[in-house]
Design brief:
The structure holds two protein chains of two kinds.
Chain A (H helix, E strand, L loop, with lengths): L4 E4 L4 E4 L2 E5 L3 E4 L10 E14 L2 E10 L5 E3 L3 E5 L9 E2 L5 E2 L13
Parallel strand pairs in A: 4-10
Antiparallel strand pairs in A: 1-2, 2-3, 4-5, 5-6, 6-7, 6-8, 8-9
Chain B lengths: L3 H8 L5 H11 L9 H8 L4 E3 L7 E6 L5 E2 L1 H14 L13 E4 L5 E7 L3 H10 L32 H11 L14 E3 L14 E10 L2 E10 L12 E7 L4 H15 L10 H8 L1 H12 L9 E2 L19 E4 L5 E5 L5 E3 H13 L5 E3 L5 E6 L4 H5 L3 H4 L6 H4 L1 E3 L14 H14 L11 E4 L13 E10 L2 E10 L11 E8 L3 H15 L6 H6 L3 H4 L43
Parallel strand pairs in B: 6-7, 16-17, 17-18
Antiparallel strand pairs in B: 1-2, 2-5, 3-14, 4-5, 4-13, 7-8, 7-10, 8-9, 11-12, 12-15, 14-15, 18-19, 19-20
Helix pairs in contact in B: 4-10, 6-7, 7-9, 14-15
The chains are: A mainly beta, B alpha+beta.
Chain lengths: 113, 584
Amino acid sequence: MPTSVHQLDDGAWLSVNDTRQINVSDLWWLARHDFCSCEMADFLAEGFVDIGVDYPNIEGRIAGQCIECGESGVTDWLTLGRVVDPEAGRFFGVDPGSVHVPVRRRRLALPDE
Amino acid sequence: MPSKVEGWKDEVYGTDVREHLYRFAEEGWNAIPEDERDAWFERFKWWGLYHQRKGQESYFMMRIGTPNGRLTPEQLRVVGEIADEYARGPVENPEFGGAYCDWTTRQSIQLHWIQLQDVPEIFEKLEANDLSTIQACGDSWRNIVGSPVAGRDAKEHLDAWPVIQELHETFKGNDDYANLPRKWKVAVTGDTRGSGQAEINDLGFEPASKEIDGEERKGFNVTVGGGLSRKEPRFARDIDVFVTPEEVPEVAGGVSALFRDHGDREDRFNARIKFLVDEWGPEKLRRVLQEDYVEFELRSAGDGLREEYTYNAGRNDEIGDYVGVHEQTDGNYFVGLSVLVGRMGAEDVIELADLAEAYGSEMIGLTQRQNVIVADIAEEDLDDFLSEDVLEYYSPDPHPFLRGSIACTGTEFCSLSIVETKNRMVRYARWLKDNVELPDGIDDFHIHLSGCTASCAQPQIADISLRGMKTRKDGEPVEAFDIGLGGGLGENPQFADWVEMRVAADEVPGYIRNLLRIYDEASDGKESFREFIDRHDEDELNGLAEPEETSYEDPYLGNTKMTWYPYAEETEMDASPTPSPADD
């Protein structure tokens, strides 16, 4: 079955196959990023802005700010988790507290997002 | 391409959602197909039901829209009884107990822990008493705000209540306006206090006068495109239109139809009309309104009354917030009671309703400062009323820190919030009352605490603005606040300057104490806090006072969003008892 992903409630959370998976308000460590000048951005997720699928990854751009330097804005694309088997539909989320590397847009977001 | 939400709305929305809601109530929580839950939760909002956050599956917040925040004592009792019977969760709140009502900053009522199977019964009780949850959330006409004591208040330019009633009756349940690109917030103010806070609404009608055919007419100036959400606050823009009370429905319908037809349905973050006004400018909006949506020729704006506004106006000479005893135009009195953070226990709500009825009151009011008003108290009964027990806690003469504190829902129930809010604000206010002196002559001091940038507690328009954040303390993430200063409405509305960022929540009371010491030293007793802040430039404000740990203790410093409920004994998400067994 196709994997359904979207943000809801004003970007409060990422939904995968209509199940709430990742909330705002977590801190994400970002490395090799250009979000701010910090070597490692200590990024507070305040809202999911774009959500997309690049099989098997679920990706998103998140609005928020680095709590180290105060820079705010929207991240490049971050891997938020994976749906390895679309038939089963089970989502494996990443751990926000581990280190993440945002990447620039490689393809269009889902047309309906 | 329209957003996913627009697709769901195209399938079922508006009044049609109700039959599905009843079907799910009958069949139970599990009858909602898992792959349709997001769609149905989005639709349920139109009927005032908002699914609570992660860890609280199957429980809903229910919002009841009360135009102008106006109820009868009987209606208030019904709300209290519904809260007592249905708004009980698996765990009590340590400050507020097991059942309570929230008075919101848009003069509505919120109940929590509502379960689907109870919705038909609750709707029946509400509607038998002329109350409703219709369009309390969702993309349509929300609760219309304004002065609860319209028609009774001596400080009134004109009585706006008949206008508000007509708007409410015209635009609730009206298919032509049921599906807008986004929420639609309307304020209509006829008083001279500015209590409608039209400046922060999508559509505002503010009191004004204009000479028409040689006759001075009372009516309203029209503003469009205000709002505080995200980090994109806007004051509503003046579109240079004056309307008489009779013309309000046509113009209100015209502007909301314009929004329906021209608002952005592709990007919900860009959908509010404030962004359309940014794009078009007020002149184009007025032109399109005139050409396509209004039959009569629009007049230019009249003379407004903003210089008289006292509601959240940062003035030291008069506080327009309704708290205290005020004479009505009919010789009776209304008494405004302070409700700290707008939350009142269900038993207290019922007791207040009984009391109001016993004293012959015909009207209860909810204000945008989250307080409650009991109207129509006869002069000879005033002393007795004021000595009633329930007024000891819900005081008509509260300490300024209790009077001026507002908080949103926070991580207790809300998906968006980053921090715990209401219980923390209660603790802040009590600590400040016990430990911090305000300069002599300062009776009004506003602290608005909002859990995130959605700004439901209107943080940008307070003396002290607190907006939920995170920081690290000793390497560990803790809940924190960005602190803003000097915001407010009135003659010259202004948003707060954000001067101190990412202050750990347990250091905020110390910051406020240190700042007020500086204010006290500089104060002559006449200058309001907002005026004091206003005469400092941004550089001076940054670092003006230092955050500091004090005797204040914060039990919610950790990540309350990681819990299923912040006040449970076992707070871990895995310990959540939801979905409710009653629905399985």
